[in-house]
């Protein structure tokens, strides 16, 4: 079975591009690194970065939870304050409408 000249030309072009584009150099550097223990160092670096990523994610989650708690606390305080203001307003009206008291008998409105 004879080789197709078109296929041979494509293979030769691929090899030339690989070799002239620096691919061969990178491949050889990678192979040399694998023999020299670079894989172990890369794995250690990856594990360290993954641990740092997890720690930062945990800190972020704690900060978000604390923010949610503070917002809920602020909402509860605002609702309580509004209820007190409404109650004060109703009581002032009752006192002002009482026949035995005048508007002047009311203390000044709190500021």
Q: Given the C-alpha coordinates, what overall shape results?
A: rod-shaped
List how many beta strands DSSP finds: 0
Radius of gyration: 39 Å
The separation of the N and C termini measures 101 Å
Please trace the helix and strand order, writing H or E for each element.
Answer: HHH
Largest sheet: none
Which stretches of 5+ consecutive residues score pLDDT under 50?
A: none
Question: What share of residues are in beta strands?
Answer: under 5%
In which range does the helix fraction lie?
A: over 70%
Mean pLDDT comes to 83
Please identify the structural class as seen in this structure.
mainly alpha
Please work out how many helical segments DSSP would assign.
3
Topology of this protein?
Blueprint: H1 5-20, H2 23-35, H3 38-97
Textual characterization of the structure:
By secondary structure, this protein is mainly alpha-helical. It has helices at 5-20, 23-35, 38-97. The chain is rod-shaped, with a radius of gyration of 39 Å. The N and C termini lie far apart (101 Å).
Summary tags:
about 110 residues, transmembrane, about 80% helix, transmembrane helix, mainly alpha
């Amino acid at each position: 079975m004879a080789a197709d000249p078109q296929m041979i030309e494509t293979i030769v072009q691929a090899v030339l591009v690989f070799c002239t584009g620096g691919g061969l150099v990178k491949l050889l550097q990678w192979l040399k690194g694998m023999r020299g223990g670079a894989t172990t160092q890369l794995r250690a670096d990856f594990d360290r970065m993954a641990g740092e990523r997890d720690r930062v994610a945990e800190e972020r989650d704690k900060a978000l939870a604390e923010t949610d708690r503070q917002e809920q606390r602020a909402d509860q305080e605002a609702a309580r304050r509004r209820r007190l203001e409404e109650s004060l307003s109703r009581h002032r009206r009752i006192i002002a409408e009482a026949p035995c008291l005048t508007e002047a008998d009311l203390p000044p409105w709190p500021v």
